[in-house]
Amino acid sequence: MLNSKLKSSLLLGAMLVTLTAFANTSGAWWNDIKNNRASSVKEAINKGQDVNALNQAGQPPIMQAIRDKSMAVFDVLVRDPNINLNIENINHETPLMYLAIIGDVRRAEGLIFRGADVNRLGWAPLHYAASIGHVDMIKMLLANGAFPNAPAAEGSSPVYMAVTSKNPEAVKVLMAAGADPKAVNQLGKSAIDLARELKQPGLVEIMLR
């Protein structure tokens, strides 16, 4: 029989081999995502790769794919039955919020169809779309039930964020959906106040109609 020291040594060696293999696989996985190697990512999934495991920066694969503009990889990941479409990264952001930022309406709509949440406590996809002034994305999110007056973590509304984009059309679309430009955040500032502060009289006029 093996003595306890030898058993411990063998067990430690086996663990190190396993961890090294995992590290190599993990590194290859994230590199494949970065380089948009959809077939390699699909192969890794077929071999048991966890599609929801966060990387060292706190990003899940589906969101890292968006950051890397690896949309072929994104398309592979989103079709996986084990994917968590509402997974959060280290900053409590979701895949739909990332798509709202880049303005990919088709993929965002597909994500919602598959079960992604349009509304959530705090910052929501609509805030993100409004902050960039992505009008088509704003329209799509509203059409899918996004709350036009949803308060962000510090109370700012989507129309408040739309003012930061300085896009009149974004403000108009939100106003038409019932956004309240007089609602104040925790600093006591409204979208109208912000528009005046940013010297955007056109936006002030739109919100005072």
From TrEMBL:
Pfam families: Ank_2. SMART domains: ANK. One of its GO terms (molecular function) is NF-kappaB binding. It comes from the Bacteria. GO terms for biological process: cellular response to tumor necrosis factor. Keywords: ANK repeat, Repeat, Signal. The keyword Repeat applies. PROSITE patterns: ANK_REP_REGION, ANK_REPEAT. InterPro entries: Ankyrin_rpt, Ankyrin_rpt-contain_sf, NF-kappa-B_inhibitor. Coiled coil: none annotated. ANK repeats lie at residues 121-153, 154-186. GO terms for cellular component: cytosol. Residues 1-23 form the signal peptide. This is Ankyrin repeat domain-containing protein. The lineage of its organism: Bacteria, Pseudomonadati, Pseudomonadota, Betaproteobacteria, Burkholderiales.
